[in-house]
Amino acid sequence: MRVQINHNELRPLIREGYEKVYDAMSRLLAPEEMIFAKWEAGFGGILQWTLPNDYMWRNFTQADDYDKQAVINEFLRLKELGEKKLGTNERLKQAVYSIPSEASVYYTVTPDGKYHVMLTAWGYSFPTQAPMTDITWQLPAGAQNTTVRFVENGEPMVNLPFDIHRSNGVVLHHQSDENGDKYLGKLSPGEEARHQRAAQAGSVFDTV
Q1: 70-116 pLDDT, tens per residue?
Q2: Which of 4-18, 24-38, 46-60, 136-150 has the lowest average pLDDT?
Q3: Taking the model in full, what pTM does it have?
Q4: One-character DSSP codes across the chain
Q5: Tens of pLDDT, residues 130-140
């Protein structure tokens, strides 16, 4: 899948060379931390980013509240891990994790229930707008922190694997913590999800 944008619609934030920075990140980051889509110049002033073909990608702006919360959580987790490996150039680190808008974010959910996040147009912003440095969205009115808890005979069910079946057919695999709890983020009252217990068993970034 390719995402294309005319270069006149974007303002570059990276001064060190886009391909040079991409290659450096490819060496420094673990595969799951490499959430940056491959960039290449197209014809007629078009910039394009290619998402891996082995997944069916969805745009963040089209996600429901559950998926948006999961995508944000995964993005922030991988960003925190990645920034620790990308050296001391704070300006550059902020630039590579910056995007023009939420529409630059894509995600997929694998059959095992794991969310994968990819950024397109990373290292760019719109010419007249500040870059977006974190993925956000406006929570619906009444959204509440939601935790599922499992108790048996008055005792918490520790490390219990369980599945959540989404209305879109996706099955998400979870596990309760030492208190029998699993935090699901902020959700709107009335959202439904069926759950069941699972069967038991030195680089460019170091220059300022």
Answers
A1: 898 899 999 999 999 998 999 999 999 999 999 999 999 887 778 99
A2: 136-150
A3: 0.77
A4: -EEEEEGGG-EE---S-HHHHHHHHHHHS-GGG--BPEEEE-STTEEEEE--TTS--EEGGG--HHHHHHHHHHHHHHHHHHHTTS-S-HHHHHHHT-BSSGGGEEEEE-TTS-EEEEESSTTEE-TTSPPB-S----PPTT-EEEEEE-EETTEE-TT-EEEEE-TTS-EEEEE--TTSEEEEEEE-TT---EEEEPPP---GGG--
A5: 999 888 766 66
